[in-house]
Amino acid sequence: MVDGKVVPSDNDPQIYFRGLEGEINNVLITLREETTSAVNYQLFYPDEQGAVSDQSSMTLMVPEGQRQVSFELPPGEYSFLRLDVDGVFPVEDITVSGQPLVKTSVCYQAQPSVFRVGFFTLFFFILAIIFQKKLPEWKKTVESGYRLLRENPRKTGLFFAIFLAFCLLLYPLVAVFSTYRRVSFQTPLYLFGIAVFLTVSAFYFLHSQTEKKPEQIFTVLALSTGLMLCFLAPLCTGISWDDETHYIRSVQVFSNLTQADIVMQHYAYQSPLDFSFSVDVFGERSAYLNDLYQNGQFAYMNTNMSIESLDVYRRMGYYLPGAVIFLGRLLRLPFVSVFLLGKTSILLCYVALVRVAIKRLKTGKMILATIALFPTGVFLASNYSCDSWITAWVMVGMSYFFAQLQEPDQPLTVKDTIIIMGSLVLGLGPKAIYFPLFALLLLLPKSKFSSVQQYRKYLVIVSVAAVLVLMSFVIPMLFDSVPSDTRGGSTVSGSDQIFYILSHPLTYTKVLLGFLWEYVFSFTCITDFAYLGTVSGSFSLLLLGAVVFTDKSDLDRYTSTGKVRLVTMGSVFVTLCLVATSLYISFTPVGYGTINGCQQRYMMPLLFPLFYVLGSAKIKNGIDRKVYHTAILAANGILLYWSIFSLCISRYFR
């Protein structure tokens, strides 16, 4: 100790805590001063043999501006703990405890602002319009369902009897299995079984409508599997790509950060993830976070990691979960409930938008449904992420565009124009680099317009929209320094990388094309659950290939022409080049022979327009549409449920 600061005396500084008694659940380190730079803290605890290793440790990268560091340990009695800190830190207090922190009462919301008031006014206004428009349809659906139940009392009674019997029978089976595996009662496995039963029942009751309304079964599949991923995945971040950053930004849109938010963010830096796959840990962590949230400590966040680094347009993907988090805290809901509701809002938005897109298409509904039900797509929509926001809005815009392209003699309506343009503008907010997709909109023929002047106005609107989206990321680069992601390493320099590309265009072209060849043809974006793992994508590829060449009709002669395919594939290729180049600049060491950080998920928004224009209208599918749609959706459901069971549910009892 030097002047109240812990100063390392060698290259491997270690602090031991000995003589510990009783159960230990958490360690809270309080500093006398805010951290002035990022510091790594690693806490070791002994395993069953009394030894310490990286497998029995937790690591936190604490950003600047923090005064507290908290670790949550597997509850138990430990003879000692060891803390490794890479740097000098002014310690005030270190508390080792098995109890949650003391509760106090605070206000959790950020101060009112014109933007916040305006956003929620618009938010509730849009909800009111949707509710007013859809209320008659919803009322009709409810009345139809109620009438169906009354007209078939025996079937209704039989279904509920079977469902109750299934639940009562499944419970002891899961209990026996849990005892056999020497784990707590497997609630995730029990709920998984119930979800499977209800999904199969939905297929039975809705199969007669799948010919004309396949979006109903899609909704059931997407919601049932997505909600399982929302509520049954471990209670932490570090599950999906960068979900800790997306969560923090979602909170910051309308609310202040609390210590519980920082702890939730830091879970992403703790290891191993397998520790989180425990029913007991889920319950204990839930209680811990709820109590920590009630403790009411606000946390300072480095602005480089916060929402302040993004302009209003690029925050587009965070407004919905941010609004839900704000309202949940306004209603004083527990921290964990608000956290899960935020994820659920992202899923509901994804399902609702894709449902609209499927409903609008005249042909190729199963192509869209299959891509939207890819395990990776549903997984991203069930976690804090902007990817599902982009993908869903692109699907809406492209579905309306393709529907218009298949009606060359019908005039383009103002409503559809607004939906097509609005969907792309809204959707590309978080990642404007997908702007080349606007090129597809130039394919609408002149026959869609009442006059040459109207056609020219349309071209101007498309061009202006594309330029505005493009400027949303070009302007920050012109007036700010070229961004470099520090996660790429100390040798990353955006400005130096741009100079290298301009100085060695042929060398970089070779690097880019070589990378894209492997990137595209590895095609692991369909069954990847990020840090939870992946399952084989062979079945998904076969299923996608089947629907691309069988879900066709005569209308596809307008959307599967050589010109449409060329423009679509060209736009997709240019977009991939831009995505890869942006990561070469911001994430890859200067002059490196490949491109780092370009994850497969970046292809998700491009899959629907690309695969929709493939195939041929000359291929005739004679299978009954009700049977065909049911079979394709069932195949997607089987793959989804298997992926969730393999990568999530089964890990609770391995």
Layout of helices and strands, plus pairs?
Blueprint lengths: L14 E4 L5 E8 L7 E6 L12 E6 L5 E9 L3 E6 L5 E7 L16 H38 L1 H29 L5 H20 L8 H18 L10 H12 L4 H8 L12 H17 L23 H12 L4 H26 L4 H8 L2 H7 L5 H19 L8 H14 L24 H28 L14 H10 L1 H18 L15 H13 L11 H26 L16 H9 L12 H23 L7
Antiparallel strand pairs: 1-6, 2-5, 2-7, 3-4, 3-6
Structure notes:
With 654 residues, the chain is an alpha+beta fold. Among the domains are: 15-97, Galactose-binding domain-like (Jelly Rolls, Sandwich); 361-652, no CATH class. It is built from 20 helices and 7 strands. The chain has helices at residues 114-151, 153-181, 187-206, 215-232, 243-254, 259-266, 279-295, 319-330, 335-360, 365-372, 375-381, 387-405, 414-427, 452-479, 494-503, 505-522, 538-550, 562-587, 604-612, 625-647, and strands at residues 15-18, 24-31, 39-44, 57-62, 68-76, 80-85, 91-97. A 4-stranded antiparallel β-sheet has the order 1-6-3-4, with no helix packed on it. It has a 3-stranded antiparallel β-sheet with strand order 5-2-7, with no helix packed on it. Residues 101-109 and 300-305 have low confidence and may be disordered.
